[in-house]
Amino acid sequence: MIYLCGSFTGKQKKPCKHCKRFFMWGVSTGICDKHNVDVSCREHCKYFKRDSTTWTKDGKCKVDENYLYV
What we know:
The chain is mainly β. The chain has one helix at residues 65-68, and strands spanning 22-24, 29-32, 37-40.
C-alpha cells in the first residue's frame, strides 16, 4: 500500500495510509520502495505527516534542500 493523498487518490475510499516503505524526499514528492512508484501530492489530508527534523508545519525546509538530493 503506497501513501496517496489529496488529488492523487486514485478514487480510493481511504487513500491516506502511513507506510513504512514510503519516503518523502521533497516538498510534495515521495517514493514507495515496495512498488517502486514516485508519488506527487499537491494537497494533503489531516493524516499527512512529514519528518519534523527536516520540514516545518507549513512545508518549508529547515535545512538547505540542495543537501537533501545528494
